[in-house]
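Sample 3 of the quickstart, ligand iron/sulfur cluster:
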Amino acid sequence: MAHALVAEKHPLDDLIRTDRMPHIWCPGCGIGIVMRCYAQAILESGIPVEQHVIVSGIGCAARTPGYMNLDSYHTTHGRPIPFATGLKLVKPELMVTVFSGDGDLAAIGGNHLIHAARRNVDIKVICINNFNYGMTGGQVGPTTPLGAKTTTTPYGNPENPFNFPYLLAAAGAVFVSRWTTIHARQVKEDILYTFHKPGFTFIEVLAPCPVGFGKSNNIDEGVEEMWLYRRRCVLAGRVPDETPWEALQVDLREERPIVVGRFVDEERPVYRPVRLEDKPSEHRG
Ligand SMILES: Cc1ncc(C[n+]2csc(CCOP(=O)(O)OP(=O)(O)O)c2C)c(N)n1
Ligand code: SF4
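Result:
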């Protein structure tokens, strides 16, 4: 019988709150691809599902915890990193992943991002960079490329955006990579890798937002932005040895390359708070 060929249950079903479907994301949105990579990495991690925790701020990407069948925290705008930091310090046995958007992490939450990297807090950050504030109507944000249009920069963005890999490397992250939604395999592999890498790790995933960023820049469909990635992405040599950091700036004007790859993979002592009971008694106030 034909229906016997159809699996009744997908292997990832247990990790997804299927009762919450349909989701809120627009057709062609890239966020779901990254959520799938995260779910697959959890499945392959060998770390019990009960130990995985997902934390987000506010935005379209930040809706992801609501669809994951995990301990999920949808916090306030820009605050997933301090929330995740507290969680990890109190319960170090948890695998704490922050899953949020570029605006949430680098605009309102920008200071938390760099200071957690500087401290090397043992949390895993996955940042969906769609170059704009998708949820609130496609406004300019700190990663909008120079010259790109948004609803608040109709004549083109006059500001330089953050170069995420460069920023995070300078701030002290022990692992930094960038991929796009056409690199689903690499995204999954890097999430899996960072689960086993102590310290502050950061994965940037460039993702289409056809309804926000695409509409303002004549990129009508999500798949069209995926073709743009396919045309322009080049794999980096290890920076700064072979690729200058400046080359990692995303610039969508003309046919400039978008550099993807792993940029940092280092060891550094992980942040541990000094507890009162750890101090020798003569140093207690
Ligand atoms: C304190 C506060 N300021 C502003 C907002 C409005 N707001 C909601 S989501 C958002 C931006 C989200 O952008 P991004 O993180 O890039 O996520 P995306 O929606 O693109 O996935 C803003 C400004 C808010 N919810 N709270
Ligand atoms: S507005 Fe953009 S980011 Fe938000 S769901 Fe739609 S396509 Fe995705």
